[in-house]
Amino acid sequence: MWAKEILLAVIGLSAGMVVAGGLFSFIIGLGVVSDFADRTHTGEHILLYEDSVALGGILGNIFWVYHIRIPYGEWLIPVFGILSGTFVGCWSMALAEILNVFPIFIRRVKLLKFVPYLILGVALGKGFGALLFFAQRW
Predict the structure, then answer these.
(1) What contacts 24+ positions apart, CB below 8 Å, involve 15-22?
(2) Which pTM value belongs to this model?
C-alpha cells in the first residue's frame, strides 16, 4: 500500500516539474524576460530575472498546495494582482508579436482605423475579467 502511494507521489511530482519546466522555458523562450531587460537597460541581470521567474513559480506552487498563509497578505493581494496582470499582459503580447497575429488579422479585416479601439477593448476586457475573477474569490 505504501509503495503505491510513494510511486504515485513520485510520478505526480515528476510530471509537475516537467510541466513547470516547460512553462518556464516557454516564457524565457518567448522573450518576455529578455524584452523586460532590454527595455529597462538591465541586460546584465538577465540570469537573475530568469531565476526570479522560476523561483516565483516554485514558491507560488508551494503556497498554493500547502495553503501557507502570508502575514498581511490581504494588503499584498492588490500589488500581486497588478504585477501578475502586467506580466501576463506582456506575455500574451509577446506571443502575439511572435505569431504576427494582429497585423495579419487587421490587414485581412481592414480594421486599420480601429486599431487603438481594438487595443483599448482588449485591455479593458482583460482588466474587467480579472476584476470579476478576483471579486468572486473575495
Answers:
(1) 16/61, 20/57, 20/58, 20/61
(2) 0.52
